[in-house]
Design goal:
Elements lengths: L4 H8 L2 H7 L7 E5 L2 E7 L5 E7 L9 E4 L1 E2 L4 E6 L7 E8 L2 E5 L14 E2 L24 E5 L1 H6 L32 H8 L3 E4 L3 E3 L17 E7 L10 H17 L3 E6 L10 H5 L28 H17 L4 E4 L7 H15 L5 E4 L28 E4 L1 H8 L18 H8 L16 E3 L9 H8 L3 H15 L5 E5 L19 H4 L3 H6 L1 H14 L3 H4 L9 E7 L2 E7 L11 E7 L5 E14 L12 E8 L3 E7 L14
Parallel strand pairs: 10-11, 10-19, 11-14, 14-15, 15-16, 16-17, 17-18, 18-19
Antiparallel strand pairs: 1-2, 2-6, 3-4, 3-7, 5-6, 7-8, 7-9, 12-13, 20-21, 21-22, 22-25, 23-24, 23-25
The structure holds calcium ion.
The site of calcium ion has 10 residues, from strand 12.
């Protein structure tokens, strides 16, 4: 009789299993070495495994079949002296008196739709100059721009060469303009001008919800992994040729690096496209969580939860992250539903990246929540918001508290926040400013642990959200700028959804993961129609990079914020803006947010203040006017003032407004 999920789990959690079968070695998957090609698969309970070799990634019968040899720790191996680069393969396993076919969970290349794995000599996939490729130097602040490969270049207005639209190769152009008018930059040159310095790619690993043989218009965000260590095929110029997607993704990353962007990859190790995965076919139930009563754990809301706490599963995830960092030069990782993974694993990943690349060099952050409870084993701590202090101070979390304080709940779409009419949000806004850090055990450790944002691919765009709460368009536009002005002057890493800077809309759709590309695509025409708003973002980003008091990511950064003052709908504070041991452009800042629909008079601490940004213009710092004693803020607007003067005791300056 076949074992139940629970029976399998009991076997895996036994000490005997751990001693006998946890494989700590390297080299799983197909590897080409000087001794030939090795195939290794971990499958402790297979009774027999046949390796099938094919010339094509999806068609035809196997041209060779080889019995694999059972080796130590449940690993099966086949070795040949031949170099099998470009040969496709899968496995036929005998288990519990059944025959199971599976591709290789450890595959580094695959055929169309990822159904057969491919042997790859990775050197052969390197674009020219790849060995010299390195990310641009780190800037004062992290400004992350979240985009989807297909959304980026799909629209005709972007002026991308037709055959590259929706593809990795669209990122190779540094001269795209609006309908190729030669005047208005789109794509890469547009992003350069905007000033963001990290591009976060929504899933580029091989996912299952787009048919790679299907229509070009097929669209999905791609949060449904099939092959974790292989790039998605639908963005490549030839998804049937296993090498091409690898080379083209590397070329894209190389181009982004060359043009001044670091690259973050969105990784989804919390669940797989379906439970019928290569993991499940080769080691039933090992890689998934099962409740005590035998029910499948579904904390992801996607039908299954990956069991990150199982030793071979944690090892898989850790090695996968290191593989993308090493082979594809990825500079940061955004973990989808990180709250489903265990804290130990996240800390191991942080340590491994730090050891290899230097402390904090690679960004690591994620969503500190889950869709539902999960059947995590060994009483492991989950990487949830509540456990932020268990994580390394360089592991970040999306901060929904700041997000919702500024513009209202993402889930309750009618609910306003500070900018659009909610009352009594002042304290939360002040906490947001210092990234919820402070004295005491219940605080965030450092701003490096916080991703500050008001929109991402999930939920409504900022524009659509404000449309729910604010009918008056002129007012809505003021609220929009105030929202941007607030989060761009909060400590913490800055993050926004592509197009937020041009009032991107998805017609109110809250979850556009499978909506048509026409809804999801970036509308470059709109980017130029909303040029003034884009300029406002540009100015805020450029100003932010000059404000060390807000860019500081150290555990002590919150102490720079002082002189907090609030009244209904108004918040104001001072920032110690000195750079460590050096002068900065302004020693002290006064930042104020007015969400009231009337002007607000502010009295100022003594001395002459330069006006750096207000609700309409974020470039005032280029040629600042000065003000003394008091200033009037416009309704629904922000204001940043800066002062250059020899530092005096804080006690003399805390009084304001
Ligand atoms: Ca795919």
């Amino acid at each position: 009789m076949k074992k139940t999920a629970r029976q399998w789990k009991d076997i895996y959690s036994s000490l005997e299993f751990e001693k006998k079968y946890v494989y700590e070695g390297e080299g799983l998957g197909a590897l080409i070495t000087e001794q030939g090609t090795f195939f290794r698969l971990w499958s402790p309970f297979a009774e027999e495994i046949i390796l099938n070799l094919y010339l094509d990634g999806s068609k035809g019968e196997a041209f060779e079949r080889h019995a694999m040899k059972r080796c130590e720790k449940g690993v099966w191996q086949y070795r040949t002296e031949r170099n099998l680069h470009g040969i496709y393969y899968d496995f036929t396993l005998q288990m519990e008196n059944s025959t199971v076919f599976s591709a290789d969970p450890y595959a580094r290349a695959c055929g169309i739709n990822g159904q057969r794995s491919m042997v790859v000599d990775l050197k052969k996939t390197d674009p020219e100059g790849w060995e010299e490729d390195s990310p641009p130097a780190k800037e004062e602040e992290t400004v992350i721009y979240e985009l989807h490969v297909k959304e980026f270049s799909w629209d005709e207005s972007g002026g991308f060469p037709k055959e590259t639209r929706g593809k990795y190769r669209a990122f190779l152009y540094n001269d795209t303009t609006l309908y190729s008018d030669g005047v208005h930059p789109t794509g890469i040159p547009y992003l350069k001008k905007l000033g963001v310095n990290y591009v976060q790619l929504m899933p580029v690993y091989d996912y299952g919800s787009v048919d790679e043989t299907g229509e070009e218009t097929e669209f999905n965000w791609g949060y449904d992994p099939i092959n974790y260590n292989v790039p998605e095929g639908s963005y490549s110029s030839d998804p049937a040729a296993g090498e091409v997607r690898i080379r083209e993704l590397k070329e894209m990353i190389q181009s982004l690096h060359r043009h001044g962007f670091r690259v973050i990859m969105d990784v989804v190790y919390n669940h797989t496209y379906s439970l019928d995965s290569w993991f499940q076919r080769t080691v039933p139930w090992y890689f998934y969580r099962v409740k005590e009563d035998g029910e499948i754990s579904d904390g992801s809301g996607c039908g299954n939860d990956i069991a990150s706490e199982m030793p071979m599963c944690g090892k898989y995830i850790l090695e996968s992250v290191l593989y993308w960092a090493e082979e594809y030069h990825i500079d940061g990782f955004r973990f989808d539903l990180m709250g489903l993974l265990d804290v130990d694993l996240m800390n191991r990943i942080r340590r491994a990246l730090d050891e290899k690349y230097g402390k904090g060099e690679k960004l690591l952050f994620g969503e500190p929540w889950a869709a539902d409870s999960t059947a995590i084993a060994y009483e492991k701590e989950q990487a949830l918001k509540a456990n932020i202090r268990s994580l390394d101070h360089n592991t970040g979390m999306f901060c929904d508290d700041t997000r919702d304080a500024i513009k209202g709940s993402s889930l309750e779409i009618w609910e306003p926040g500070f900018v659009n009419g909610a009352q009594k949000m002042e304290e939360q806004i002040l906490r947001s400013v210092c990234a919820w850090c402070g004295d005491g055990e219940d605080h965030v450790k450092a701003p490096s642990q916080v991703i500050t944002y008001v929109s991402s691919h999930d939920n409504q765009t900022l524009w659509d959200k404000l449309c729910q709460t604010t009918k008056d368009e002129a007012l809505r536009k003021r609220e929009y700028r105030l929202a941007a002005g607030i989060y761009m002057t909060c400590q913490g890493n800055l993050f926004f959804l592509s197009g937020e800077e041009f009032a991107r809309t998805k017609d109110g759709i809250e979850d556009s993961y499978n909506a048509p590309i026409g809804i999801n695509r970036l509308d470059w025409k709109k980017a130029w129609e909303e040029e003034e708003l884009v300029d406002y973002y540009r100015g805020l980003i450029a100003l932010r990079k000059q404000l060390p008091g807000l860019c500081d990511k150290k555990t002590s950064a919150w102490k720079r914020i002082h002189g907090q003052w609030k009244k209904e709908g108004v918040v104001s504070f001072l920032v110690d803006n000195r750079k460590d041991g050096e002068n900065s452009s302004w020693d002290i800042l006064k930042v104020s947010y007015n969400s009231r629909k009337e002007p607000q008079r502010l009295t100022l601490p003594e001395g002459e203040w330069e006006i750096l940004a207000d609700g309409q213009n974020s470039f005032l710092w280029k040629k600042p006017e000065t003000v003394e004693k008091a200033i009037t803020m416009e309704p629904v607007s922000m204001l940043v003032l800066g002062q250059k003067r020899p530092w005096r005791r804080r006690d003399n300056k805390g009084k304001s407004a």
